[in-house]
Design goal:
Blueprint: E1 10-21, H1 23-34, E2 39-41, E3 46-49, H2 52-59, E4 69-86, E5 106-109, E6 114-123, E7 128-135, H3 143-147, E8 162-164
Parallel strand pairs: 2-8, 4-7
Antiparallel strand pairs: 1-4, 2-6, 3-5, 4-5, 6-7
Amino acid sequence: MHLSDLKQHYYQGYSYRGVQLTQHELNEYRWALKNKDSVLSLLTFASTSINRNVAEQFSTKPSSSSDKLSVLLIFHFSQPCDTAINLSKIPVYQLPCISNFKNEQEVLISPRTFFKVTDVEIDQPYEQYTIYLENVCGEQQTMLKALKFFLPDGLTKKTSKCFVMDHVFCTNN
């Protein structure tokens, strides 16, 4: 497979990832929600699913640490994204599944994919948190525009904070 072959795999729509976070990690998302200019970035590849039920299974797995909270991350890609690759079967293009996990309807999100937090909710009876993330795409995601989020406060008149979701994307197995 060549990189040019992936264009038909660029993902648009919603994908889901179930994780377990500490209260401190959850508070980072709440901070990003309150600070509208903030942007989050992935440091590593993240496996997500088009199927919400698949992702929810990962968020509710028993944790070895009692301080972990059950969280569902909902990623929204409003247009085809070249850093979110649909690995599942795509019948409209007659493309086979290229994931090792054929039943998970996998979308692989690559490092340096940027998101804004649009909401954080809790389902009280089940203590299940849901974090909504909107992909920052197109021209907004170019490196030059993204660099402003990494500059020290003294270098620009208006800076935005950026934190990286590396702690979120560890293996759930």
